[in-house]
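comment on this one:
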Amino acid sequence: MQRNKAESENSGSLDMADVDMTTYDLSAKNPTKKNEAELRDPQEILDEIYELDAKSTKILSVIRELL
């Protein structure tokens, strides 16, 4: 950590006791970073797109009738 920069929730500092002394692995891994959300199944995404398209089509039909 830089001496003149305050540590924040995004800081990725670590204790030397946590460093693997056989490899000195200093990979850029932020231990404070939250886990990413799991990816959805592609079929689930396509189903949602189809459902939203159907809703959009209905709404556009109503609008077209109003014109």
The CA atoms of residues 11 and 25 lie 18 Å apart.
